[in-house]
Structure formats: structure tokens, C-alpha cells
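ESCALATION

Customer reports they have been waiting on this structure for their group meeting. Please prioritize. Original submission:
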Amino acid sequence: MSVRISDHLIDPDIKPLLAILPPLVLTNETLTAVRTGILEQFKANPAPPDPAVSVKPIIVPRTGAPSVRVLEYRPTQAAGMLPVILHIHGGGYVVGSADMMYAANRGLAAELGCAIYSVDYRLAPETSHPGPLDDCYAALLWLKNNAADLGIDISRMGVMGESAGGGLAAALALLARDRGEVALTFQHLIYPMIDDRTSVSANPHPYAGEFIWTHANNLFGWTSLLGQVPGGVDVSEYAAAARAKNLSGLPPTFIAVGALDLFLEENLEFARRLTRAGVPVELHVYPGAIHGFHNVPSAPVTIAAERDSRNALRKALRP
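Update from on-call: job pushed to the front of the queue and completed.
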């Protein structure tokens, strides 16, 4: 592992992650291999059975567009109408699937007594914006229209995502607000990828983004999603939520990010602007934490972040 200028700032309990993870290099040439590696890793480490939560795939049909696969997590002993989270996985818009959050979502559904629906949206560059967001909105609208049959309480329904999933979650909250068909009660954003301009900044943060999700990977991810070079004047706010001029009317927002994460400054700015638009915001910045630090579950900083996240979700889902 080469030494970077931010190396001395990394939480010592997080550093072992860098020693075992191979460098993530995303290009058109490596993309297939990276996707395959993630799938193989998931298959090689399956979560043990848990009778407390039922998990099943659901196909959401659409007219004139591909159907959307969604994974449903539901506590088996739950009674009555359940609060619900629409979850969107990360992966820089170009890798990953709903399946890779299987263990985390199953545990969350059991602990919070809620239903979770995780969207297997189409990936870029094969599907550029607005395709992935359309998939997420189709799942959200389907939940609203089928709430009674599903046994879910849409008056306690919010959206949650990590990284690119957080970016899609933030964009989905904007889209839901503007279309007026579905009312979200919260957005829960874990180091969200929300601003394409970060990837072409002439003055990048000197200490953020050196590990895991780098400037080069960020440029690849945004170029893939947009189908063009990022940073242009014509990028839609529904592709990059940080570009939205009006943030009023959005639901209460939780944002968590590591102090060494490439997305630090765009997340801080988004939180600042939300507060100025009258949106309740809970913001957490974790010292020494890099992008993906949740992959070291035993680290005290991860334990603290998970505690903060669950407390916020518990509050957001209560009657």
C-alpha cells in the first residue's frame, strides 16, 4: 500500500481495511471484472439463515419500460401496518446490486421492525440518467399504490441509500417532491454521491478521496451516469441533487460522511443549504473515516456511525 498525504489522518482501526482490499480501479476495461469480483465475494460469504426476517424478490412491472427487481425484507413476527424504507444500494452508479446489502438490510428490518424494499436499479454506463432514477421512482410509486396489500404504512415511508445509492435517494426525494405523487417522511443519506462537479474540481480537497473511492473513480462513475463529461451547465438536478436550486419542501434529512471521504465537502454544502431552506438536518462527520469505512464493523468509529444511523431511523419511523 503506497503512502498518501492523508495516511496519518486515517483512524487506526480503519487502516486494516486498506491492507486487505485491492485498489479499486474503474475503467471501461476493468468494469466487468470488478462487477464479477463483487458478485463472487457476495456468493462466497453468504449470510446465515435468519427466521426472524423473510426476504423475497419482487418484480415491479412497468408499461413501456423494463420491470424492476426489488428485494423485500419483512420481520416474520411483525403485526399491523409496518413503516417502510425504500433502500438504494451504492456502487458509484456502475457496480453493485441490491443483493450485496442482504445482511445489513435483514438486520435493520429485524431491529427496527420495519419493511425494507431494496431496488435493483439498472447500472451505468449501459443505462445512463435518467434510467436508474426512473427505476427507483417506479419502485416508490409501486409501494404507494400497493401499500394496503403489502401491509405498509406510507405515512411512515422514507428513502435511504449509501454512496451512489445516497445520490439516487436524494434525487428521488427531489423528484417525489416535484411530482407530488408520493410524500416521503425522511431521506437517510450515507456518504451520498450528489455532485458531479466534485469530479472535475480545479481545487479538490487535499486530504479527502485518496482511498477506496478516488478522484479517478469518481470521474468514471459520473461520466458513466451522465453519458458525457461531468461539470457542464446542462446537468440535471435529478442526476446530481447538489445542483438543485430549490431545496425547500424536502423531508427531514440525515447525512453521515467520513472526514476523509471524497464526498465530504459536497455533503457539508448540501447539509448547509438544506438548513437554509428550512429542512431539518442531522449531520455527522466521522474523524479519520474514509469512504466505505462501514466495512470495518468492529471499529469504534463504525459502531458509533451505526448507532447514530439506527437512532435516526428509529426516530424517523416512529408513529
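Sent to customer with the following note: The chain has a mean pLDDT of 95.
Escalation resolved.
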